[in-house]
Specification:
This protein is mostly helical. The protein has a domain of 154 residues: E3 ubiquitin-protein ligase SopA (Pectate Lyase C-like), CATH 2.160.20.80. A two-stranded parallel sheet has the order 1-2. The protein is elongated, with a radius of gyration of 45 Å.
Length: 397
């Protein structure tokens, strides 16, 4: 067991502050100047070496010595006064400089403290609003208002940790409400059967019995509001998302996604018949085997997008930018491709039966195995055989 004496160690001797060292130097320099000045006078003869002999102090030379001492004293006092005044001025400037630095440091500390206080208050306010929005979201009568409150919080968030929880709350609700089911599959098939019956009569009989069947499928108001808010989320946070939004296997039939930003979003196996994606940003999004029959993708950005096996029959891709996109084994029967840019896209084994390609850019696109019919229209001097395309009559199955 150690004693108190053993535990207590003498504190190391502190070094002299730099301020004291600078004061010593400031006093040493004037002293050296005074000594040098005095020695210079001796060397120059103003103070003669004879002043230090008995002969010099004779009566006839006392008057001369007094005068010399008086002159020397005046000069010495004047010079010392000047040096002292210079030292005082330097010392004062030094103190003023130190005072200014201290004032600046205090101002910086106060500013940091103020910013920290404001930031803490802002975070507390954000958390309070988030909790209130959650409480409102749980009640059906106030859910729509809560949805828009989450949208506002997403815009106000200045960091990913505040933004992402808002997105997660809305996505969980979407998946609960819009997940595709067998019941939806049955009612969907029934409507398309009635539509194709009407369409066939229109094409073969020159007219159909009655108007086009009304399309009854659209997301509920709450779900549509969430889709709009997610499509308008801040761009700076889209780039920080650790994983893309996942709409896989959701029922998005008739959804309004115009002008929305859904880059890199996953729509695999989603049902998006008659959905409007006009001018939407869908770059590098995924639509593997998605159902997009009759959807509006006019002027949409589809660069680098994957639409493997997607059903785009009757869809509109007018003036869409689909460069370097992949449509492998997708179906574009009767689609509107006027002005569509497919440059360098993967169009292998795509079905173009009855599609008009006359105003479509397929430069450097891979059309190997793509299928066309007698009703497919091509640009002038375009030979589909030269691009590896095949007729539907040559279909091996």
């Amino acid at each position: 067991m150690t004693t108190q004496r053993e535990e207590t160690k003498p504190a190391p001797q502190e070094k002299a502050p730099k301020k004291i060292e600078s004061m010593g130097l400031s006093l040493l320099v004037p002293a050296m100047l005074v000594l040098g000045f005095f020695a210079g006078w001796i060397g120059s003869g103003l103070i003669s070496s004879e002043m230090f002999t008995w002969t010099f102090w004779a009566d006839d030379q006392i008057k001369q010595a007094s005068e010399s001492f008086r002159n020397f004293g005046l000069v010495f006092v004047g010079f010392f006064t000047a040096i002292f005044g210079l030292g005082i001025a330097i010392w004062r400037n030094y103190n003023l400089h130190r005072s200014a630095e201290a004032t600046q440091q205090q101002a910086e500390i106060a500013e940091k403290s103020h910013k920290s206080t404001v930031e803490a208050a802002r975070k507390d306010h954000f958390v309070k609003r988030f909790k209130e929005a959650n409480e409102l979201f749980a009640k059906p009568e106030t859910r729509v208002g809560a949805i828009y409150e989450f949208g506002e919080l997403m815009k106000l968030a200045d960091e990913h940790d505040h933004y992402w929880p808002c997105v997660q709350v809305l996505m969980v609700y979407l998946r609960q409400q819009l997940l595709w089911t067998e019941e939806k599959e049955q009612e969907n098939n029934e409507w398309w059967e009635s539509y194709w019956t009407w369409h066939t009569d229109l094409q073969t009989k020159g007219g159909a019995d009655g108007p086009e069947p009304n399309y009854p499928f659209h997301p509920a108001h709450e779900c549509q509001s969430i889709l709009t808010i997610l499509g308008e989320r801040p761009t700076e946070f889209i780039q920080t998302e650790s994983k893309p939004l996942n709409f896989r296997s959701l029922d998005l039939r008739g959804a309004d996604l115009r002008n929305c930003d859904f880059k890199t979003t996953l729509f695999d196996l989603a049902h998006m018949e008659r959905a409007s994606l006009y001018n939407a940003d869908l770059q590098k999004a995924g639509f593997w085997k998605a159902d997009l029959r009759g959807a509006n993708l006019s002027e949409a950005r589809l660069e680098g997008t994957s639409l493997w096996g997607a059903n785009l029959d009757g869809a509109s891709l007018r003036d869409a930018l689909a460069g370097k996109a992949s449509f492998w084994q997708s179906s574009l029967i009767g689609a509107d491709l006027s002005g569509t840019n497919f440059e360098k896209s993967d169009l292998r084994e795509v079905r173009f039966s009855g599609t008009d390609l006359r105003n479509t850019n397929v430069k450097k696109a891979n059309l190997e195995g793509a299928e066309y019919s007698g009703r497919t229209r091509f640009p002038d001097d375009f030979d589909p055989k030269n691009y590896g395309m095949r007729s539907d009559k040559d279909r091996p199955f």
